[in-house]
Design brief:
By secondary structure, the protein is an alpha/beta fold. The protein has one domain: Spore Coat Polysaccharide Biosynthesis Protein SpsA, Chain A (Alpha-Beta Complex). Helices cover about 40% and strands about 15% of the residues. It has helices spanning about 1-10, 30-40, 60-70, 85-95, 115-120, 140-160, 175-180, 190-200, 225-240, and strands at about 15-20, 45-55, 75-80, 100-105, 125-135, 170-175, 205-210. The chain has a seven-stranded mixed beta sheet, with helices on both faces. The longest helix has 19 residues, at about 140-160. The protein is globular.
């Protein structure tokens, strides 16, 4: 065990903020938090675990408040109202204090232990390292949307070439997050992250990871209205990136993107 801890903490990544967005994850959140802590405690990394409760209407927030008393490295963030997937990630990124930030969804469809695949690929602060789902355990409409939106349109519009745009298993240097301004509150957050990072000259590395079927809770669906909105917002995002619009938004300005939770 000691050798394992040393081997994972002697690479480029010495410290890590782990961000988990969670919306109505009462059946999953406690198990996922404990799984993350059990794994991270074996790595020797200086870590913090940031779970963002995005205005859940179930007991997700209550569970996190209890766990916060038991787990010193757990730092929950709470939105009083549901603000959207992108907004939850942005809150987690802003709260992160470590040199590297890793995020995955809080629904248990990824295995935190596969971070072992990501860490050896981190050689500097200039690359995002992302997983791609070897086999997606999602409904057909979500897979179709991913193929049309992430596999084709984003490549054309933003010059972003990734296998799995919205795979929620990414390690991002804090340097990159500090260099760009993210505004998306919903489904466009990953396209914006990649688009702005690539525009700034940062690179992307990829590796296959496993994706598991949801075993509890309700999966947020890729509704047609949300998909159409994402296509529309992608065109607006392209114009902003081309224009070099990467200024910090006014703190009093409302988020420009519709606050939709689902993404592909």
């Amino acid at each position: 065990m000691v050798n394992e801890m040393k081997s994972k903490a002697t690479g480029v990544v010495q410290e890590l903020s782990v961000v988990l967005p969670a919306f109505n994850e009462e059946p999953n959140v406690e198990r996922v938090v404990h799984d993350c802590v059990a794994y991270l405690d074996t790595t020797g990394l200086d870590y913090e675990l940031i779970v963002v409760n995005d205005g859940s209407r179930d007991r997700t927030g209550e569970i996190l408040k209890r766990l916060e008393q038991e787990i010193p490295r757990l730092r929950p963030q709470h939105h009083p109202q549901n603000r959207g997937y992108g907004a939850a990630l942005r809150t987690g990124f802003d709260a992160a204090t470590k040199r590297f930030v890793f995020y995955m969804d809080g629904d248990g469809q990824f295995d935190i232990k596969e971070l072992d695949l990501i860490l050896p690929l981190v050689t500097d602060d200039d690359h995002i390292v992302t997983g791609f789902r070897i086999k997606r355990n999602d409904p057909f409409i979500r897979r179709l949307n991913a193929k049309l939106f992430g596999g084709w349109l984003v490549r054309i519009m933003l010059n972003v070439y990734v296998t799995d745009l919205n795979c929620a298993f990414k390690l991002i240097p804090k340097k990159i997050l500090n260099a760009i301004t993210l505004e998306s509150t919903g489904a466009l957050i990953n396209a914006e992250l990649y688009g702005r990072a690539v525009r700034k000259g940062f690179k992307i590395k990829e590796i296959g990871v496993h994706h598991y079927a949801r075993t509890a809770g309700v999966q947020t669906g890729a509704h047609l209205s949300v998909i159409l909105r994402a296509f529309y917002d992608l065109f607006r995002l392209r114009q902003k990136i081309i224009a070099g619009d990467d200024q910090k938004p006014d703190a009093h300005r409302k988020d420009p993107e519709k606050q939709d939770r689902p993404r592909d």
